[in-house]
C-alpha cells in the first residue's frame, strides 16, 4: 500500500509524511513494466504501420493472445475479486499498473476484467454474463449516453415498458465504446416516467445483441471508435434486469466513477513516455549549430511538463488511495480526472512542438497521442462536469478546502 500523505511515521521523534511506495507496489509495478517492455512494446511500429493503412493496430485475437501471456505472468483481472480468478488489487496498485500500460501506444490492457457493475448480477446472470466477460469469451459495452443526454445523463429518453414478464426497450444510445464488437450491452433506460431518473425512474438491463439491437460505427478523430446502438422494440426478459428495478442511474454513476482515477493513471504513462521522447530529441536535434535543448524556450516546455506530470501523479495516487481507505473518493477522483486529462493534452502538445514537423507526421506516435488523448477531456465526465462536481462540493460545504489535511 502506498503511504501517501495521510500516513505518518515517526522519524527521530518527529512525525513525517511518507510519500514512498511499498516494496510490494514497486515489485508489482516492475513486473508489469517488464511484461510491457518485452511483450507489448515490440509491436509498436507494426501498430503505427497498420493504423496508417487504416487497419486495427491490434486485432482482437492478438490482444487475447497477449492477455493470455500476461496471465501466465500473473496479471489477470486487476480489479476482479479472487473468487473469480482475479488479482483484486488495491486501487493504488491498479493506478500504477495503468501508468505502465500507458507508456506504450499499443492498444493493450490486461485481461480478466469486467465492468464493475456486472458484479451486481445475480447468480444466473453471473454465469451468463459476468464470468464469460472475465474470461474474454464475451464482450460487453455500457450504454447510458443518448443523442439528447450526455453530460445531463438524467435526461435519457430510452424507454423500458413492461409487457408481462418482459420489458420492451425503445430508443437510441450513442458514443458507446465497444458498441460495434459487443455481444451484450448494459443499458440504462427509463422504466418509470413518473419518477426521477436519478431516484427510482431508471433500470439497467443486460441485453444480448441477439435480442435485436443493432449498432452503427461512429468515425472519430481517434483510432477505433464508438457506436450508436438502436433499440427498436427490443424484448428483454425480466430476468435480465441488472440489480434492482429503479437502480439504473445509481449503477451508471458507479460505472463512470471507476474510470475517474484509471483514465488519468493511463495518461501519466503516456505523458512520461512522450516527455522522454522530447528530451531525447532536444538533446540530439541540432539547429543553428547547437542542440535544441540549449534553448530556454525548449527547456521551459520540458520543465512545465515535468511539473504538471508530478502534480497529476500525486492527485491521482491520492484519489486511488482514498478509494483504498473505503472513503468517498468522488471529490479527489474528479480533481485527478480533470487535471490528468488536461495535463496529458498539454504535455503532448509541447512534445509535438519540440519535434517540429516530425511531430506532425504519422511516422511517430505523437500525433496519434494528440488525437487520442483529446478524448480524455470529454468521456466519462467532461472537464466541465468535473469542475461542476468539485465546485459544487465546495459551494455546498460537502468538502472543506484542503479538508483531508485539516
Ligand atoms: C469516444 C467516446 C466514447 C464514449 N464511450 C461511452 C460509453 O462507453 N458509454 C456511454 O454511455 N457514453 C460514452 N461516451 C459518451 C460521453 O460520456 C459523452 O460524450 C460525454 O458525457 C459528453 O456528453 P455529450 O457528448 O452529449 O456533450 P454535451 O453534454 O452536449 O456537452 C457539450 C459541451 O458542453 C459542456 N456542458 C454541458 N453542460 C454544461 C454545463 N451545465 N455547464 C458547463 N458546460 C456544460 C460539456 O462539458 C461539453 O463540453 C463516449 C464518448 C466518446 C466521444
UniProtKB/TrEMBL annotation:
Needed co-factor(s):
FAD
Q: Which Pfam families match?
A: Acyl-CoA_dh_1, Acyl-CoA_dh_M, Acyl-CoA_dh_N
Q: Does the keyword Calcium apply?
A: no
SUPFAM superfamilies, A to Z:
Acyl-CoA dehydrogenase C-terminal domain-like (SSF47203), Acyl-CoA dehydrogenase NM domain-like (SSF56645)
GO biological process: any one?
fatty acid beta-oxidation using acyl-CoA dehydrogenase
Q: What is this protein called?
A: Acyl-CoA dehydrogenase
Please name the GO terms that the record assigns under molecular function.
acyl-CoA dehydrogenase activity; flavin adenine dinucleotide binding
Ranges of residues in domain Acyl-CoA dehydrogenase/oxidase C-terminal: 246-394
Per UniProt, which keywords does this protein have? FAD, Flavoprotein, Oxidoreductase
Per the record's keyword annotation, is Flavoprotein included, yes or no? yes
Tell me where in this chain the Acyl-CoA dehydrogenase/oxidase N-terminal domain is found.
Answer: 22-137
Q: Which family does it belong to?
A: Belongs to the acyl-CoA dehydrogenase family.
